[in-house]
Amino acid sequence: MVTTEHALLVKGLKKAYGDVVAVDGLNLDMKVGECFGLIGPNGAGKTTTIEICEGLLDRDSGDVEVLGMTWDANGNQLREKLGIQLQDTQLSEKLTVSETLHLFRSFYVKGRDVRDVIDAVQLGEKNNARVGTLSGGQKQRLAIACALVGDPDLLFLDEPTTGLDPQSRRRLWSLIEGFKATGRSILLTTHYMDEAEKLCDRVAIVDHGRVIALGTPAELIESIGATIPAPPPRASSASLEDVFVALTGRTLRDE
Ligand SMILES: Nc1ncnc2c1ncn2[C@@H]1O[C@H](COP(=O)(O)OP(=O)(O)O)[C@@H](O)[C@H]1O
Ligand SMILES: [Mg+2]
């Protein structure tokens, strides 16, 4: 049993795809029990960083320690402890919700009761429905269920709420908060600043493959709050979105 205070330690991480430098000397230090947010424009290198931490992509250089272990030395042990929701989850359309969860459950030695997880993501009524018949929000909740069914210590969520309606988003928020309340760790990316502000203990703003700002949402807001012109009628109420725009120069970057 490995004990560590760090859920993730990333030092000087670099990764290029041919000429495109996706991650350019990125450092992260995430503690056990934290919900840590990676925010940044499209193409900033968030997904590449996460997929390296998940053991799905090889790095070019740098060090990555996950729950006190490395992929090189402890790959099998690590896989048991992680829950992964990819930015683009492709589940088999022909399987039912229940079959999908049983399949993912079979990847882990220990895990949760499949029916409990289905209920936790409120897909009980869809238990026997084929994945191909689910709505976008339901598919997204199923993807999260697949990430939860191994009862992970560390949960990776890459844009879990993109494209969801407000109700589904809030349902996911309470799932994430429930997971966090058990003392376990979450690495989350999102384009929604209100979401990062609500869920994350600390946030790293990533641009061009590097962390350009790091802190609690309140610290980040305070760090630039004074320089934000106060728009009436919400006088001097800077938000995390203001920090994001001030540092990266735009809210949306299409790749
Ligand atoms: N498989 C790939 N092949 C080539 N370039 C890629 C690949 N995946 C990502 N990239 C490029 O790497 C950069 C970082 O992408 P990504 O990690 O997906 O960023 P983010 O998740 O922050 O949007 C972008 O310029 C993207 O186009
Ligand atoms: Mg991404």
Helix and strand pattern? EEEHEHEHHHEHEHEEHH
**Compounds present?**
adenosine-5'-diphosphate, magnesium ion
Helical fraction equals: 25-40%
Percentage beta strand? 15-25%
Trace the largest sheet across and list its strands: 5-6-7-3-8-9
What Rg is obtained from the alpha carbons, in whole angstroms? 19 Å
Distance between the amino and carboxyl termini: 42 Å
Total of DSSP H or I helical runs spanning 4+ residues: 9
Poorly predicted residue ranges: none
Mean pLDDT: 90
Shape: globular
Largest sheet: 6 strands, mixed
Pairing-aware structural class of the strands and helices?
Answer: alpha/beta
Q: How many strand elements? A: 9
Properties at a glance:
about 260 residues; alpha/beta; 6-stranded mixed beta sheet; about 25% strand; globular; binds adenosine-5'-diphosphate; binds magnesium ion
Descriptive overview:
The protein is 34% helix and 24% strand. With 255 residues, the protein is an alpha/beta fold. The chain has a six-stranded mixed β-sheet with strand order 5-6-7-3-8-9, sandwiched between helices. A hairpin with a 2-residue loop joins strand 8 and strand 9 (210-215). Helix 3 (97-105) packs across helix 4, helix 3 packs parallel to helix 5 and helix 8 (217-225) packs across helix 9. The radius of gyration is 19 Å and the shape is globular. The chain starts with 5 loop residues before the first strand and ends in a 7-residue tail after the last helix. The relative contact order is 0.17. The model has no long low-confidence stretch (mean pLDDT 90). Magnesium ion binds at residues 46-47, 87, 158.
